[in-house]
Amino acid sequence: MTEHIHVAPAPVGGRLLTPVTFTCGVLILAALAILAVRFVLGLGAVTHLNDGYPWGIWVVADVVIGSAFACGGFSIAMLVYIFNKGEYHPLVRPALLASLFGYTLAGVGVIFDLGRWWNFWHILSPAYASPNSVMFEVALCISLYIVVMWIEFSPTFMEKWGMRDARRKLNKVMFFFIALGTVLPMMHQSSLGSLLIVFGTQIHPLWQTMLLPLIFLLSAITIGYAVVLFESCLAAAGYRRSIEMHLLTPLAKIMLGVLAVFMIVRFGDLLWRGALGHAFAANLQAFMFWLETACFLSPFVLLRSEVQRRNPARLFIGGALLMLGGVLLRINAFLVGYDTGTGWSYFPSVPELLVTFGMFAIEVLGYIVITRRFPVLPREDAPPTATPAALRAATR
Amino acid sequence: MNGRREFLRRALAGGAAVAGTTACPSAHARGNAEIPPEAIGLLFDSTLCIGCKACVAACKAANDLPLDYNSPVDALWDMPLDTTARTYNVIKAWQSGTGTQRNQQIDGYAFMKSSCLHCIDPSCVSACPVSAMTKDPATGIVQYDADACIGCRYCVAACPFGIPKYDYDSPTGKIGKCELCRHLLPEGKYAACAEVCPTGATLFGKVSALKAEAHRRLALQEGAPTIWPRGNLDTADQPAWEGPAPRYVQHVYGEKEVGGTQMLKLAAVPFEQLGHKPLPERSFSSQSETLQHTLYGGLVLPLAVLGVMSWVARRNVKHDDETDARGAQDAHAGEKRHD
């Protein structure tokens, strides 16, 4: 039995035009300009995509990594509503908001990458259905999940606009959307890994395995917790609010638990397949594998004891490194470990990178605008006059 | 610590559900797909190819493909180094040492055709999310429908032979690949590359007949005179010629690779040197689809998990309404709840 206080969410308030939002705006404009060129002249005009590497960072970063970063909502919802850890409830809304943005943008980002984007709707039309295709399943699940998340998040708008009746009606069936909101991400986050199985021997043995769905799912869940740590520290620092350490410290422990399961599955699979030997070769793949592994292992060192988990700077860095591990796992599996034959190479072009930065800038800008104007973050009555030193450490 | 025990119990239950969904891929195992009995294809015999590239030009004409310069500076020759979205067929030259001995490994040279192999169990078809890439149930031709295609390029990435190509230089780019001149079949014609081939190095016909012909050649004594058919093996529309048999590598490439292909290849030089990687016999699409259908067959598993999640969420979500409703009026609404 635990007793805890729920603080109602409230808008943070404050100015919308700040150096951060201005920078985001500039990045977004740059991305839009590049996208205009892309839609007039074709993908080749702005990207370094080629037939050896037909998928670049617009797929791997904007969609595969972007959606994994957007797993905070899913991971926290699992904790609160499935494992009944009600004390984490104040984290639900901010996490859900970030997820909403992450997924909506991933969905939009796909269109930028599609060579025949005007046919996009085919993927949702039964006339073109292709149930054997992993991507078909991913696309359906992500589309549905975006709708489900907007429904889950809609009480925030209903509160703001005083739609009490609608709010009450929705609450009666909300449990079903919450359940859908856990099953759909399980399905597509695992399938984002399964996408690679049909690539067969083109994927390096360090990453090609029938357990890819489980590996991608577990890493997405643990990234979800890491993102919440990262975001909470950043939001606290940016808005000069107190950090919810009473929630983040135990959350970090849960994150480490899921991460441990992930590491056991990851290395158990490598040993079982006898693929670990490839990790000791003198090549880029082996180097990137160890870089990825180091990132995944670092939270165990940084956050090994309760004392360290009470240090916001460590939570922030531990979360960020875990996110980086997730980034590397995905980049390694989709690009570094992908070999389609000699003579092909790929490194993103500057315009390609700028579009990806622009996508992440939209997320940051949207998060700031909505948290400042809508009730998302827990209300903070006493204005934090003295910013704790820990906060400053977190932003360094 | 009741809470912790409960948490662990749920974690284990959840974990088991997830593990169950991913770790038993044998439940709906499907093997490699079967070849349609009337499937058609090509037999390419590297030992007969003289590198004239008549097939490259004929392919361009038959498919109405634009010029494809490999150098934007010196845009004079339509001679791409590899297949592209605008070139479905190329002949590549291989050489070693002095490169003077035809079809020899040492100081030798040889030619190899690069075009779609029309897999019996194609990865591109399995990958395509909108059924733009399909396999004809009668001919077995792997065909493309640009009107259905969304341009995701999953087929380009998935193909183990690197065959489907996308046109990145166009805002409305399509995928381009050999479709075995399926548009010519109703006119009673057949693949332009085989029709134009002067030596019969590229031979068109039913896959069953081509396979028998390939094995007949492998059984020949080196130097023994034999008959080399040309054009269409089934109709013998072009006169055959007589000549000595070369020394073959005892391997019909495409007979077993990734579940077999409808293009078969013979050579006097090991295939790996001719840019043909060794591939497993189990098709990658059967592995991928086995996994997918184990997890999502009949949507049984997702619906079961959804049922469990709904039940659990319904129990746990109740406190939520009270808290939020009260919280809207009183920021410090306290609440007691069971863990």
Protein traits:
heterodimer; A: 396 residues; Formate dehydrogenase/DMSO reductase fold; 13 helices; 67% helix; B: 339 residues; three-stranded mixed beta sheet; 13 strands; 29% helix; globular; disordered C terminus
Structure description:
The complex is a heterodimer of chains A (396) and B (339). By secondary structure, chain A is mainly alpha-helical. Chain A is globular and about 60 Å long. The C terminus of chain A is likely disordered. Chain B is globular, with a radius of gyration of 28 Å. The termini of chain B are close together. Chain B contains eight helices and 13 strands. In chain B, the strands form five sheets. Chain B has a three-stranded mixed beta sheet. The C terminus of chain B is likely disordered. Chain B has 339 residues and is of the alpha+beta class. Chain B has two domains: 66 residues, no CATH class; 242 residues, Alpha-Beta Plaits (2-Layer Sandwich). Classes of the chains: A mainly alpha (396), B alpha+beta (339).
SSE blueprint and pairings:
The complex is a heterodimer of chains A (396) and B (339).
Chain A: E1 2-5, H1 19-41, H2 57-69, H3 72-82, H4 89-113, H5 134-160, H6 164-194, H7 212-239, H8 245-272, H9 284-302, H10 306-309, H11 312-336, H12 350-373, H13 389-395
Helix pairs in contact in A: 1-12, 2-4, 2-11, 2-12, 3-4, 3-6, 3-7, 4-5, 4-12, 5-6, 6-7, 7-8, 7-11, 7-13, 9-11, 11-13
Chain B: H1 2-22, E1 40-45, H2 54-62, E2 90-95, E3 101-102, E4 108-114, H3 123-127, E5 133-135, E6 142-144, H4 154-158, E7 165-166, E8 175-176, H5 192-196, E9 202-206, H6 207-218, E10 225-230, E11 238-244, E12 263-266, H7 284-296, H8 300-329, E13 334-337
Parallel strand pairs in B: 1-12, 3-4
Antiparallel strand pairs in B: 1-9, 2-4, 5-6, 7-8, 10-11
